[in-house]
Amino acid sequence: MNITHLKYALEVEKTGSITKAAENLFMGQPNLSRVIKELEDATGIKIFSRTSKGIIPTENGRIFLDRAAEIVRQTQELEHLFKSESGGRQTFRAAGQSSSSLLNAYNRTVSILAEESNYDCHLVECQSSEALELVARGECTIGVMRAGSADIETLQSALWEKNVRCRPVGSFRYVVILPKDHPLAAESEITPAMLEPYTLVTSSEKRELGSVSRMIYYQSVVACYASLADISGGYMISRPMPKSSMERYGLVVKPYNNGWGEMTDLLIYHADHKFYDADAIFAEEFRKSYWDLNGDNIVKE
After folding, report:
1. Buried-exposed string 59-82: b where 16+ CB fall within 10 A, e elsewhere
2. Which of 41, 47, 115, 124 could disulfide-link 95, Cβ–Cβ 3.0 to 4.6 Å?
3. Is 83 a domain residue?
4. Do 67 and 122 fall within a single domain?
5. Could you read off the pLDDT of 48-94 as tens digits, one per residue?
């Protein structure tokens, strides 16, 4: 049993499939099956069970995988510590649902870290639930989730169960983003009823922004911006965006009267994670990545 084999088991858990996990790990399915069998023989337990929904952990397997994730995360922390002290290469990994704030904070962080040649930086644009799992398993050092004010306490309880902690970093209200030639572009305020005939363009796969008649999904918010001008009646429900992006893509931003109230962005990290320079830089840059309806920067104090 070694750290690599533990990572293999965690990939099987993540995908729920030996075949898919083997593809992601760039190895043969028989070899991965052999590794899992060796882990089961070494521990004396059955780690996974096959069901109609795929491969899932057994009760003992869940305990094993939780501990394996902890060991992998601690190993990565140890490697990071000594790489930092010895001048070796360090890794910064962030995850979160694609947004103008996430991309701006990440780009600014990368720009600052570029002054140090020993950093490899990675950004995973994904749904909030996946960001949470990546942070919980130690595959990303820091993540971003969003929540309504009334939901923060419930979310914090769910995070504690996964040994993940959070801190508020800023807040925003949803707006509607439209091409300049959209039929609603001259309106002073947009309501949900006004949007019913049109097509939602979004990077939120789970339709968390409410029921819509038509939806087009892109993984990245940048792809959403770029596509709006080409989609008849297309609109986005998102956070305010920087003026430079509004001008680049020919977009306007309108207040959205939906009654949802203010949303809070939360930085999430493993309970045992120690903030390094890259994490602190990212947190500070995200704090400064908010804009008003005109695209002017708002520094959250």
Report:
1. eebeebbbebbbebbeebbeebee
2. 124
3. no
4. no
5. 998 887 889 999 999 999 888 888 877 877 766 665 554 556 788 99
* Structural domain of 131: 89-168+262-293
pLDDT digits (tens, 9 = 90+) for 119-170: 788 999 988 888 998 998 888 989 999 988 778 888 888 888 888 889 899 9
Tokens 């939806």 appear where? 215
Domain of residue 216, CATH code: 3.40.190.10
Q: What whole-number distance in Å separates Cα of residue 259 and Cα of residue 152?
A: 17
Q: Are residues 129 and 182 in the same domain?
A: no
**DSSP states of 260-293:** ---EEEEEEEETTPPP-HHHHHHHHHHHT-EE-T
pTM: 0.70
Q: What is the DSSP letter of 190?
A: B
Q: Are residues 97 and 47 in the same domain?
A: no
With tokens 């750290």, the residue in question is 3
Q: Could you tell me the CATH number of the domain that includes residue 15?
A: 1.10.10.10
Q: For residue 187, what are the CA distances in angstroms to 182, 199, 201, 255?
A: 10, 17, 19, 9
Q: Does 180 fall in a domain? A: yes
